[in-house]
Design a protein that fits this description.
alpha+beta; Hypothetical upf0131 protein ytfp; five-stranded mixed β-barrel; two-stranded antiparallel ribbon; 37% strand; globular
Length: 178
């Protein structure tokens, strides 16, 4: 794992709310592609966008395919603090596996960087697996957690994807109905 003690910058790959609300200082923000996992509304949120009684639904990186998102470069001096922040934010219920994966930057440089990613744990009780569009819509409409309404999360993520020139068919379907 990259750390400030190794004097190298930290890269973080964002595919959901981290794209539009990173919550940490960064030196560079570049679109990037991760191969081997795809963006999916597959995590029942029982904290940020829902409760145990009325869970919301948030994005996870699920196995297979690829995902375009945002790669953030964090200065080495802030790497440890950033990782601590990310772990507190992303690992509230340990639904994700923190890993380092290669991300290809889409800035014309041809660079590939080792970035911290949060991959969904399919064995976790919050993993929703495949749901129909109607089931997703119902969950998103009723979800509300400490981070606010679940619908706001979906709308903000779809808006961010559009800003970087991407469309997500599943999110677009939900947005049209929210």
């Amino acid at each position: 794992m990259t750390s400030a003690t190794t004097a190298t910058d930290l890269w973080v790959f964002a595919y959901g709310s981290l794209m539009w609300k990173p919550g940490f200082d960064f030196e560079e923000r570049v679109p990037g592609r991760l191969i081997g996992a795809h963006r999916s509304l597959c995590v029942r949120s029982v904290h940020w966008r829902g409760t145990p009684e009325r869970p919301g639904l948030v994005l996870g990186l699920d196995r297979g395919g690829s995902c375009v998102g945002i790669a953030f470069r964090v200065a080495a001096a802030r790497a440890d603090d950033t990782l601590a922040y990310l772990r507190e934010r992303e690992q509230v219920t340990n639904i994700y596996h923190e890993a380092t994966r290669r991300v290809w930057l889409k800035d014309g440089s041809g660079r590939a960087v080792a970035a911290v990613v949060y991959l969904v744990d399919r064995g976790h009780t919050q993993y929703a697996g495949p749901l129909s569009r109607e089931e997703r819509l119902h969950i998103v409409r009723q979800g509300h957690g400490v981070g606010g309404p679940n619908a706001d999360y979906v709308l903000a993520t779809a808006r961010q994807l559009e800003e970087i020139g991407l469309r997500d068919e599943e999110l677009d379907w939900l947005v049209a109905r929210l």
